[in-house]
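Hi R.,

Here's the chain you asked about this morning:
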Amino acid sequence: MLDRKTALLRNNVVTDGSGDRALVFAHGFGCDQNMWRLVEPSFRPQFTTVRFDHVGAGKSDLSAFNPDKYASLAGYAEDIVEIGNELGLQDAIFVGHSVSAMIGVLASLRAPGMFGKLVLVGPSPRYINDGEYVGGFTAGDVDDLLGSLAENHMGWSNAMAPAIMGNADRPELGEELTASFCRTDPDIARQFARTTFTSDNRADLLLVAVPTLILQCQDDIIAAEKVGRFVHDNIAGSKFVMLDASGHCPNLSAPAEVIREIRAFV
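And the predicted structure, written out as tokens:
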């Protein structure tokens, strides 16, 4: 029998708010649940909010990191389903940023009924170009990225985080993301990066059967508009919103806009 506290402790689950329906907020690569601090509190009056750290991030149980389990996004989706089961989630709303968008898709397919709506912020089902599909990176680009991360985690973080964040006129945003990247265990970061950037979840999009909102940013070097529109085209009945926000992290750079669009959708 599943120990009721296992997933909640392992993933440092935090619940707040009130309401019969839950909003589950999931963070992206190199981040933790703190990245939702400017968005999540706005939903507490109407919803029970759920935040957590993926294993290897934030205050999760680092000893629970299993390289075999987390070699694919399915391992992270399994954790979300365990969290949902322990909390008794039904018809919840999943809000996933970056790689967690596809993790949420997988979780929704693994546990039908657990999530009644999906909000995908800066999603990408595949980062590597493949024939006519443009993910934004060549296989060589990804090899170089992973090699650089392996050689110099701190240097990679200092170079990449500001570029990922964008909004060069607000350097404090890039500095926050850099600090978050640098706090991540280097070995786990390398594994999660490989899992993220070599994933391919395009076929899974066709199986999504719940209302889905796609939030796309301007000038996103990780998940460009073409990628977001591909997700929209392959999830039946989904809604695509191009935000005024730029960069890859609107939950930090433009929280009011993210709140507005989620609220209108839920």
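Residues 74 and 143 are 22 Å apart (CA to CA).

Let me know if you need anything else.
M.
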